[in-house]
Amino acid sequence: MKRYDRYSKYEDRWITSLPSHWGYKRLKEVLKERKEKNSPVKTHNILSLTNTRGVIPYSEKGNVGNKAKESLEGYMLAYPNDIVINSMNIIIGSVGLSKYFGAVSPVYYMLYTRNNDNIRYFNYVFQNKPFQESLRGLGNGILEIRMRIPMYKLNNVCIPVPPRSEQDQIVRYLDWQVSKINKLIAAKKKQIVFLKECRKAVIDTAILHGMNKHTEEKDSGVYWLGRIPASWEVLPLRRICSINASISHLIKKLPSDELVVFLPMESVSTEGIVDCSQKKPLHEVRTGYSSFARNDVVVAKITPCFENGKGACLDKLDTEIGFGTTEFINIRASEKVLPQYLYYITSNIGMEISLYLSYLRNVHHLSESTIRNKEQYLYEFFCYMEKHSMTLDNISIEVMEDFFASMNYSHASRHNCSSTLRIFFRYAQENGITTKDNSIFVLHDNYNNRCKIPTTYDEDEIRRIIATVERSSGIGKRDYLILLLASEYGWRSSDIVNFRFSHIDWDKNVINFSQHKTGMPIEYPLLSSVGNAIIDYLKHGRPVTDAEEIIVSAETAKKGKPLSTPTVHSIVAKYMRKANIKNWKSKKHGPHSLRHSMATNMLKKNITMPIISTILGHQNTESTKVYLKVDIEKLKQCPLSMPKMYSKHYSTGRCEA
After folding, report:
1. pTM of the model
2. Does the pLDDT value for residue 284 go beyond 70?
3. CATH of the domain spanning 7-162
């Protein structure tokens, strides 16, 4: 970069010179602390600050860090574009720019600009490592990285303040560079995931099917495991090992001050590598921790560590016994199995189908509902293969057509299954599971999902459906709200069950959220009918629960838990039946039919396609054009003329019309 003509010198811990026309001001001259309390409660949206992801909703944080408090009145408020600072972790970069309005821990500071400055520039200043290091010594506490820095000390820290135009230039440049770096990181992560999957594929083949490809095999009796060497046994895990085996007989032999290995979760990698460098006296760890001995196997019992296969074989443990986090399960191999083999069994996914689903989840980031659909089709296919004693090397057009015939799929299901298998076969060939691309044996069909005519109900029928709800009970108030969300807004059942308090902005009378199916953000006006139904349900119908979802179950076994999408479908169908709607059984009768009805009824009122598309949350109007098929009155206005007939059949007088 081109240097400035003149610089001024400074004697500071992190800055020695700055361009002469820049300011160098105390923090309190450019940033002001927000001290607004969430009392009375203005929001239930709790925010959390992380070193890697910045400010995020607490619900996205996962099972890490401190637990949220029950009372929200003790929290402070953060607004969009506030710099949020953890007063105890600022020197390790616990700073972020908030995109949300929400409640935050009172140990956080919220800063906003006093003047016409770019807040994102100052956020980058706080991300600067030398600046963070310069704050050491300002805090109070025992641990250096957990020292709380009082705000009055932070206010007197000096920071560089360039003119606004240069602040904007710096932000644009850093955004550009950070974006490039993030893309490189994302690409590298994909490579790492792919290499890990390849490693697992090799382990799966050896551990689950042996080293000799030509040995005699038998059916394992497990659908995903398939055929195994004939000399192998399939046994429950408890037959070959002990879970949480005791080490008391070994502890008795050791003095209380004996140093033993201590394993926190971070000391064990997902590749099974163990860091034994941390050791503690026996008397400090013999109670309150998991225990294990040399040659034991440890497996994480929490997600995401369990899903990532985090565990290890402790055959190279530095000490005879050890202790570690209670999130480890200790497994001790019997004489029937080698400890290292037991580790591979408990750590590998165990089948090509699971590898593929893991690949879809981690690399392509498909939603869990999509993965479940694909898993079902793959499960049915592998069951068919197992039944007919075939492997992926036996795939042909005849095999695939016989499979589809045996399943008796609908046109839509066959189309979706074909797509799933085609992509899986390409993955299998690319990752060395098969030597050829079997996707060529899955014939393409002429299925077009746009040929279907959507089910609709007219406005009078919808009013009758809603009127059948008995709203005096809590369940009735809930069901009434569900029907309004489906009919007034056209929400999918997945959006209804995921409707949360944080989605409502009562001050602006709007509802904001990202659609569950598409991830697209969407905003609706908070209609008075819907708003009143929400308030009535919350005050007089909703069970007491900590669930963030607004609509919850009233059943005894699931009371206070979020509803499932099939339950929403059943609720809508129940009131269609009670309303005695004509031919409702022969038509679609779930919440999606109310979505179709809303769009069709809007079209009949001459509302334009782009507006309907926006309300439905479609990514483009092509998805909305399907409703043109049910507007009979409009279709009558554009008939095609009958073409002339020139064949001998029509010229002989058999059909003069």
Report:
1. 0.40
2. yes
3. 3.90.220.20
